[in-house]
Design brief:
The complex is a heterodimer of chains A (240) and B (217). By secondary structure, chain A is of the alpha/beta class. Chain A has one domain (2-89, 155-239): P-loop containing nucleotide triphosphate hydrolases (Rossmann fold). Chain A has helices at residues 40-47, 72-75, 94-104, 110-123, 139-151, 169-184, 196-202, 220-225, 230-239; strands at 2-11, 14-24, 29-34, 55-60, 63-64, 79-82, 157-161, 188-192, 205-210, 213-218. In chain A, strands 6-7-8-3-9-10 form a six-stranded mixed sheet, sandwiched between helices. A four-stranded antiparallel sheet of chain A has the order 2-1-4-5, covered by helices on one side. In chain A, a hairpin with a 2-residue loop joins strand 4 (55-60) and strand 5 (63-64). The two termini of chain A are 33 Å apart. In chain B, helix 5 (116-124) crosses helix 6. Chain B is built from eight helices and no strands. Chain B has 217 residues and is mostly helical. Chain B has a single domain (8-215), classed as MetI-like fold, CATH 1.10.3720.10. Chains A and B meet through helix 3 and helix 5 of A and helix 5 and helix 6 of B. The complex binds adenosine-5'-diphosphate and magnesium ion (MG). Adenosine-5'-diphosphate binds next to strand 2 and helix 1 of chain A. Chain B: It is a multi-pass membrane protein.
Chain lengths: 240, 217
Amino acid sequence: MIEIEKVHKSFGQLKVLKGIDLRVAKGEVLSVIGGSGSGKSTLLTCINGLEPIDSGRILVDGTEVHAKSTDLNKLRRKIGIVFQQWNAFPHLTVVENVMLAQRKVLGRSKPEAEAEAVRQLSHVGLGDKLKVYPSRLSGGQQQRMAIARALAMSPHYMLFDEVTSALDPQLVGEVLDTLRMLAAEGMTMICVTHEMKFAREVSDRVAFFHKGVMAEIAAPAELFGAPKSEELRAFLSATH
Amino acid sequence: MFDTALTSSDFLFLARGAGMTLLVTAISVVLGTCLGIACGIFRFQVGPWWAAPMTFLLDIFRSIPLLIQLVLVNAFLGMVLKLKISGFSVACGVLTLYTAAYCAEIVRGAIEAVPGTTRRAARSLGLTWWQDMTSIVLPLATRVALPSWIGLALGVMKDSALVYIVQVTELLKATQILITRLQEPLLLLMICGLFYFVISFPLARLGGYLERRWSND
Ligand SMILES: Nc1ncnc2c1ncn2[C@@H]1O[C@H](COP(=O)(O)OP(=O)(O)O)[C@@H](O)[C@H]1O
Ligand SMILES: [Mg+2]
């Protein structure tokens, strides 16, 4: 379970998160929507400890992420994260991209890591691209590779930060299908997304962020069907 | 034209000079590169403010002409500290620092060229700072730094001609000695140039080879 309690976070003078309270249970799929600059990405990078927080706390399976005694490198094995920009390691082939952290972080042997990499890459439909360098892949394929790379670490949680926003429209579908497949398999996921249709169909709950505050959170039917706040109504009519 | 007084032992004398040039260059470039990488990483990691003393020190080595550095260091060690240090050691020491000073800047620039998003992805997979450095940052930075580094190494080889000032008979000095004796400057300079070419050509080719090998990714 991911527990976020009264989290405040600012960059210098700019208050980016203003008291976020949120719990994500095992197996849940939570979508996060909201305008640009509302703090969605920042929340994800706080959850896996890439960013420090000012106050409050975040617990992942009971471990406090920002406690001094927490081994972040160990904690991050539990939490996979995929970003908007495709972050392939350009000097490694696709299969090596997926093997690297397994070898370095989990200490898996080469055959073990390779077998797992092949399994995950086939799972996301890249079984025929193993020995290719990332520069030869389309954006959608690179993004699926990044997903396979995260999944190969056997994470308990997956965080997705607008993983389709930098893609050409015709490539969005293949990546969303991959996310749908993961959700159907029971992965616990937090998806920051602009794809309202996806959020509506796949999520157990949807959270709406506005100016650093989680303004609303509800089941998709309720949140999209009967938005309570003026801000959410404005946001939804702007995106539709 | 080739009616010459050059004997085989003279030729051997030149070859030994070339060997000395190669040795001084190799030692300085290897040690200087290691030191330069360490300084470059340090400079990148702590930021310009905290690295200012180191940067200032390295800037000294970059801005004072090598000839003056050699003379001053030699005089300082020998006359002020009264140390018995060979000209060869002084030459290698000064050239190493000179190489390191330039190399540090190349390394810092190359590390800065590695996108922060790529590093963030590596860290978020659980790689430690050190693992990220060795498996992601340095391999990518090497590709960026290689052309400048090759240029630096070739430059150091040519600049090593200046170590004659601390009594190291390298290739150019050996040539000059023979010119004075035999009065055949053209032939001797041609042979000297050929030696320089033979030393630098493999390095230049290695650069081209690595660039081609890495261009697929
Ligand atoms: N590393 C950073 N340094 C300074 N400001 C930042 C940094 N990251 C994000 N911000 C600022 O914090 C605010 C929230 O950013 P972000 O969490 O990326 O929003 P979202 O993902 O909802 O678009 C923005 O105003 C952004 O400019
Ligand atoms: Mg964002």
